[in-house]
Write a structure and sequence with these properties.
It contains ten helices and eight strands. The chain is α/β, with parallel strands linked by helices. Helix 1 links the parallel strand 1 and strand 2. The longest helix is centred in the C-terminal third of the chain and has 32 residues. It starts with a strand and ends with a strand.
C-alpha cells in the first residue's frame, strides 16, 4: 500500500505547479516514502491542466483528474479522496502557501500517535486583515458548535487516516468543516499542528468575501445534515408534533370556552370570529405537513444511494 497520498486542488495555479511538485518529491524521496500526488484540476482556464499532464509524463507518482468546469474546492477534495490509495492522505493548496516540509510530521502524527485527523494551524498568517478577522469569527463559531478545539478549521494543510476520507462526503463549501464531519462520523481523535504559512508567490487569491457568507450557511447545513440525515423524522416529526398539539389544545380551549359560556347563558363570540382560532388552524395544518415531510424524508433516506456528482473530462495514471 502507498504510504502517503497528497491531494492538491488546482484552480488557475499554472506557475506554482512545477515548483510544488519538485518540492514534494524532494521531501518524499528524502524520507523514503512511497507516495502519489493527485492533482485535481477544478476547471482551470489557464495552462494548469497542461502542466499537470507534463508532470504526470515525467513522474509516474503524479496522477490527475480534470473537471469539465469549476465545481469548487470541496468537490475537488471529494474526488481526490475517492481516488486516494495512500495509508495517510495529506491535503494542501496549490499556491505554495502550504509547505511540503510539514508532511513528515503530519504523517507521523497519524501513524505514530494514532490521530484520525490532524489539522494545520496557520498561527502566523500571511493574509490581509480582511481575511484574518472573518476567519477568526468563523473558527470561533465552529469551535462552539462542534466542541472541537481547533484554532484554524480552514487551513488547507491537513492529514487523515485513509478510512476517514473513504467514509465522508463533502460538497458546497464544507471542506473547511471536514474535522466536524469526521467527528460526527465517529472519527473523534482530532489533533492540531502549527504549520508555516508562506506568502503567495504567484498569482492572486481565488477567494472573495462571498466565501464567508457561503461558509456560514454551509456550517448551518452541515450541522443539520450530520445530525438528522439518518433520522429526519426526529427533526420534522418533533416540530410537527409540537405544532399540531399546540393547534389542537388551542382549538379545544376555544371550543370549551364556547360551550361553557353557552351553558352559563352568556353571549359568547363565535369561534371562527376569533383570530386565535385561525392561528390554531394554521398550527394544525403546519404540524401535519411537517410530520408528513419527516415521513417522506425517512423513506427517501432509506432508499438513497450515493451517485456521481461531477463530470470528469480526463484522468491520468489511475488504475482501471
Amino acid at each position: 500500500m502507498i504510504q502517503i497520498s497528497v491531494i492538491i486542488p488546482v484552480f488557475n495555479e499554472q506557475d506554482s505547479l512545477p515548483e510544488l511538485h519538485n518540492w514534494i518529491g524532494r521531501v518524499m524521496d528524502g524520507h523514503g516514502y512511497s507516495y502519489e500526488i493527485i492533482f485535481v484540476n477544478d476547471g482551470s482556464n489557464d495552462g494548469s491542466w497542461n502542466e499537470i499532464q507534463k508532470l504526470a509524463g515525467l513522474n509516474p507518482n503524479v496522477k490527475g483528474v480534470s473537471f469539465t468546469r469549476n465545481y469548487g474546492k470541496s468537490a475537488a477534495l471529494d474526488m481526490g479522496f475517492s481516488k486516494a490509495e495512500g495509508e495517510v492522505v495529506i491535503t494542501m493548496d496549490a499556491d505554495l502557501q502550504d509547505s511540503p516540509d510539514e508532511i513528515p510530521e503530519l504523517y507521523e502524527m497519524i501513524v505514530r500517535d494514532g490521530y484520525d485527523v490532524v489539522s494545520g494551524w496557520k498561527k502566523k498568517r500571511r493574509d490581509p486583515i480582511t481575511k484574518t478577522i472573518p476567519s477568526r469569527f468563523f473558527n470561533g463559531v465552529t469551535r462552539l458548535i462542534s466542541g472541537i478545539k481547533l484554532h484554524d478549521f480552514n487551513c488547507g494543510l491537513k492529514a487523515y487516516k485513509s478510512k476517514v476520507v473513504k467514509n465522508i462526503h463533502i460538497y458546497g463549501e464544507m471542506h473547511r468543516y471536514i474535522p466536524l464531519i469526521a467527528k460526527w462520523n465517529g472519527f473523534a481523535k482530532i489533533g492540531e499542528k502549527v504549520v508555516e504559512h508562506r506568502p503567495r508567490k504567484y498569482g492572486e487569491t481565488k477567494f472573495g468575501i462571498e466565501r464567508f457568507l457561503n461558509g456560514f450557511l454551509d456550517l448551518i447545513s452541515v450541522s443539520f445534515v450530520n445530525r438528522y440525515k439518518r433520522r429526519p423524522m426526529h427533526f420534522f416529526g418533533t416540530l410537527g408534533t409540537v405544532s399540531f398539539l399546540a393547534g389542537f389544545f388551542i382549538t379545544s380551549w376555544l371550543i370549551f370556552q364556547k360551550i361553557y359560556g353557552l351553558y352559563q347563558g352568556r353571549v359568547v363570540r363565535e369561534i371562527t370570529a376569533q383570530p386565535l382560532f385561525f392561528l390554531a388552524l394554521v398550527a394544525l395544518i403546519v404540524g401535519v405537513q411537517l410530520f408528513l415531510t419527516g415521513f417522506l424524508a425517512e423513506m427517501m433516506t432509506s432508499n438513497n444511494s450515493r451517485k456521481a456528482d461531477y463530470n470528469i473530462e480526463e484522468e491520468l495514471n489511475f488504475k482501471d
